[in-house]
From TrEMBL:
Glycosyl hydrolase family domain segment(s): 278-775
Swiss-Prot/TrEMBL cofactor(s): Ca(2+)
Taxonomic source organism: Hymenobacter bucti
Keywords: Calcium, Hydrolase, Signal
Superkingdom of the source species: Bacteria
Protein name from the UniProt record: GH92 family glycosyl hydrolase
Gene3D superfamilies (alphabetical): 2.70.98.10, alpha-1,2-mannosidase, alpha-1,2-mannosidases domains, GH92 mannosidase domain
Domain Glycosyl hydrolase family 92 N-terminal per the UniProt entry, residue ranges: 29-272
Amino acid sequence: MKMTFTASAWSLALLLAAGGASAQNVLNYVNPNIGTAHSRWFFYTPAAVPYGMAKLAPSTNGHYGNASGWEAVGYDTRQNSIEGFVHFHEWQVGGVSFMPTTGELRTQPGDLDKPASGYRSHFDRKNQVAEPGYYRVLLDDYGITAELTATKRVGFHRYTFPKNDQAHILLDIGNKQGESGEVTGASIRMVDATHVEGFVSTYPKYVKTYDPAGKVNMYFFGEISKAPASVGAFTAAGAQLNTKSATGKGAGLVLNYQTTAQEKIELKVGLSYTSIANAKANLLAEAKSLTFDQARTAAQATWQRELGKIAVEGPDEQNKTKFYTGLFHALLGRGIASDVSGAYPKHGGQVGQLVASGPGPKPEFMNTDAIWGGYWNITQLWALSYPEWYGNYVNTQLQVYRDKGWFGDGLVNSEYVSGVGTNFVGLAVAGAYQAGIRNYDVNLAYQAVRANELKYRNRAFGSGKMDVKAFTQYGYVPFRDDYKEYKGEWYKTDSTGAYFANSHTLEYSYSAFAAAQMAKSLGKQADYEQLIKLSNGWKNILNPQNKLMQPKLADGTFVGNFNPFEPWRGFQEGNAMQYTFYVPQNPAGLVAALGRDKFNNRLDSLFTASAKTGFGGGKEIDAFAGIKAIYNHGNQPCLHISWLFNFSGQPWLTQKWTRQICDEFYGTEPIHGYGYGQDEDQGQLGSWYVITALGLFDVKGFTDGRPIIELGSPMFSKATIQLGNKKQLVIEAKNTAKQNVYVQAAELNGQPLANCWLYRDELMQGGRLVFTMGPQPNKTWGTKTPPPSAQ
């Protein structure tokens, strides 16, 4: 079958590639192999475009799934055999694996410790290339070179075979992949000699827990460049020769060929979460005339354009690699779930149709892990240079609110997959509003934000915050020690309290503040007063004796047998030492409550101690390695803490510690990437590095009525940023060097800056922000007027 490249598609590729040498250099600084030990299912997907539905990647262990539903699975740098190339990689979504082989037909992937027991193949990483938009590897057992690339909704494969009379391409669709859970239904069939279609349905663990009537459907329609000599089928029951369809668990097809030396066979696979027809329509719309090479060119040009929106300069090549790999993960982490037609997956396998609800183009519907912690990284990055994705996120959540009545923190095909049992969507929406991102129905958005903070009647379990009634009644969430395990349900939360009572109290106080500021901006004074009172809930659990956030019972007494380093008891994925600093909505209030000297001494000693373990869990390869520590950069609850010195009169310590975290927690190795095997949730830790390396941050996540930007220690001598409003901001750091971490002076557009912060709307006007750096702290700069912390 001949595939041609149209003039319009070629013009598009040339247009996208028109970035010159600097754009190409940006691509060269991305290393997708960083952090690929103990990485999550959606982490390593090089053959994709930003926020694409098609995210193709090799899998070393994907068919094993994982017992907890979220753990590391997919591609692990410590494993040396590949079992297939998988198309779908999202939070709780995985499926449709292809694998080329030669020789005796095997229809099971085989075990890691016994590669010959199945069709998996050994490979050598010296024969592997992973770049944004492209992947290539030599499969040693078969002498086959496999290449992958993608458009938004179409995956491309190119397999270069040796001469062989028994060459195969296995289309293995009926087995669990990654976080997807068990397959509940599957079907695949050859439509004609060169086209294949099918679907797979799964029931992931987090759907089962949080939205039990839900389901996850994945559909595909594929085009093959060469008709196979014969086709066979297989299921869990075994192989059936000369059969062109298969259904049920373990379903798949095998395409059989007699190949000549260096013969190339290409496949294009349209994907959809709504129907086979829409998968085909996506293929025709995006890739009807594209060859593999042309798709790769366009994909990499897209990455060059998007990564190039922030161009950094400086002599430290390693920092550039950290920066652009972090930005790559930030732009890769989440993925669209809507089709080119605007069709999107609704609850329970239904199909909806997106409509534009505000100015600008029709939004995309997104799948997303929880936004827990995302207001300290990904939303700030979106608001800086990628506002269309912040708008897509808000519009997705508002569509779910219309369809189901509640926001959903984590979402997979409209199903609730919260994971953390709280819900920060309202805060993220309020932050978007205050940042000027408003391409949605603002009144509906406020209605949904208010409901998220205050309503509890008939609340859907998967929407989280099942203890809202308790929080609004007591002003804090009462601790229930018996809820660690209650009738078989771990870490229970209900209208009377929660096992994670303290972290919930702190989180709800913060999100109530965000909703209060949105209410005030919209002139809703009564709501503002109710919500701002709730935002001070943190004061109810601060023990005045030990100056720590301590779990409190419903009768108002603090819990006994209290160990501030003990994780989980009262605190989700953390402990009291970490969570005591969780008052981002009112840092000045926390400083006053602890006393400035005590606050600064404790905070500084916290970082001095945690520096000895790399600001996380040391070299232990586990997502929760740091939850017992005094500080844990490998998880969300701590990510604002290093910026709090700006509020306590010692901004030079924010400069010192944020730079040291960038230098030591973040690495450039497959194992030491984001800590050692820490939990890089869909680009959050990468985003934190990006904005911190630029020297920009807001502990409040832009939830103030007039948001601010705190200033830190810019890492690069020059950063040229294309702002989301089409203006340009240049950040210069004079005398920047590894040891010159301290700001001596700063100016914006020629005017001296006396403060370690400025209003965000001033920054977004663009121009030149210039820092002068030095090796010793200037303890007079930025100390006179702290960032506003008004209530």
